Amino acid sequence: MTKEHQTLATKSIFLILGILLIAANLRGPITSVAPLLDSIRSSLDLTATQAGLLTTLPLLAFAFMSPLSSKIGHKIGLERALMTALVLILVGIIVRALGSTSALLFGTFVIGAGIAIANVLLPSLLKRDFPTRVATLTAVYVLTMGIGSAISSAVAVPMSNLAEHLSISFMPDWAFALVSVILFPILSILFWLPQMRERTAPEKNTARLDSHSYVWRSPLAWQLTFFLGLNSFVTYIIIGWLPSMLMDAGYSEVEAGFNAGLLQLATALPAIALIPIMGKLKNQSLLAFGTALIALTGILGLLLLPQFATVWVLVFGFGGGAGFIVGLSCISHRTHHTHQAAALSGMAQCVGYLLAATGPILIGSVHDTTGSWSLPLILCAIACVLCSVCGFLAGRDRIIEHKPSITMKVADAGVV
């Protein structure tokens, strides 16, 4: 291997490590809230519907920022855009821990905006720099997302208890626990700095890229959008309310927090199983259909046999995580090039997260009205059935077709 090849290999390794560190930030700051939800509600006197906003606000930020993220990436370059995402996550974590309701909500939205940018642009970055390893690297970075969120969820209650034990007075115990995840974005920012130095600015004609509006008229794009949207709809309901469900079923706060962390870890496990096969499959229909049915099994288990919640948490987490991986992989498999992938990713995450954003508030309201988790879980089961149908259609071996404009052809030649 020549010195030049060694240098390129080293840069690729550091780029992959940087991507994985970014991925570690893409769930943990949100999922760490659920185990502390009862403490936050008690401290700030929030209703269940208001508490649902803590899960819904990031999703609304995802929906608002997803269409803009692709444009931001084109305008300032993927590396700078991803650094912007990390800075937003860092700032949001700090603001959220100030202890007031307004700071909590605003900081949560800022965190969601940062996560949205990274969510949209990471698939585009993978398709640009690792076109032959998209499926494998997608699985690996989703695995990292799961590990990061599992750690954040599992340590939330112990960190809150530590703050109480140390008698920390300058912030509420739950705020101390939430700010503890700040280590992830700080490390990521430090590690991503070399990428900022190595990469060049995008070409001037990047801003003139085709808008890819045809994607919004594609039935295939809508099928994939609803597959990801329904998957997220159910997943964020369970992420947001699982600890409350379990505590109402007789589990302790620590046990509920542990299961919340276990849920996040379970979402990462499919990455290990799917790495060997995702790159070989041109048709993902049966795989997408099956992941939704696995998630359905977990939901029905929580509904009918809550005493075995740990088993059902693992089952649901595996199905939901696998569906997310398949959906992200389909974004690349259903498109021709980087810009089309970014446009489809923006559409799928915009509409999908708008759909998902209704979930936590809806479930909070239904629970307030009925005083039970039965109807909310039944609604989740219905969503899983619809998700399986959309997944079967979205997984077919087809490409979103279009006739690129002259501007598009010229821009594709030299865009970073």
TrEMBL record:
<feature type="transmembrane region" description="Helical">
    <location>
        <begin position="12"/>
        <end position="30"/>
    </location>
</feature>
<feature type="transmembrane region" description="Helical">
    <location>
        <begin position="262"/>
        <end position="279"/>
    </location>
</feature>
<dbReference type="Pfam" id="PF07690">
    <property type="entry name" value="MFS_1"/>
</dbReference>
<keyword id="KW-0812">Transmembrane</keyword>
<feature type="transmembrane region" description="Helical">
    <location>
        <begin position="375"/>
        <end position="395"/>
    </location>
</feature>
<dbReference type="InterPro" id="IPR020846">
    <property type="entry name" value="MFS_dom"/>
</dbReference>
<keyword id="KW-1133">Transmembrane helix</keyword>
<dbReference type="InterPro" id="IPR036259">
    <property type="entry name" value="MFS_trans_sf"/>
</dbReference>
<feature type="transmembrane region" description="Helical">
    <location>
        <begin position="104"/>
        <end position="122"/>
    </location>
</feature>
<dbReference type="InterPro" id="IPR052524">
    <property type="entry name" value="MFS_Cyanate_Porter"/>
</dbReference>
<feature type="transmembrane region" description="Helical">
    <location>
        <begin position="50"/>
        <end position="69"/>
    </location>
</feature>
<protein>
    <submittedName>
        <fullName>CynX/NimT family MFS transporter</fullName>
    </submittedName>
</protein>
<feature type="transmembrane region" description="Helical">
    <location>
        <begin position="134"/>
        <end position="154"/>
    </location>
</feature>
<feature type="transmembrane region" description="Helical">
    <location>
        <begin position="343"/>
        <end position="363"/>
    </location>
</feature>
<feature type="transmembrane region" description="Helical">
    <location>
        <begin position="214"/>
        <end position="242"/>
    </location>
</feature>
<feature type="domain" description="Major facilitator superfamily (MFS) profile">
    <location>
        <begin position="13"/>
        <end position="399"/>
    </location>
</feature>
<dbReference type="InterPro" id="IPR011701">
    <property type="entry name" value="MFS"/>
</dbReference>
<feature type="transmembrane region" description="Helical">
    <location>
        <begin position="174"/>
        <end position="193"/>
    </location>
</feature>
<feature type="transmembrane region" description="Helical">
    <location>
        <begin position="286"/>
        <end position="305"/>
    </location>
</feature>
<keyword id="KW-0472">Membrane</keyword>
<feature type="transmembrane region" description="Helical">
    <location>
        <begin position="311"/>
        <end position="331"/>
    </location>
</feature>
<feature type="transmembrane region" description="Helical">
    <location>
        <begin position="81"/>
        <end position="98"/>
    </location>
</feature>
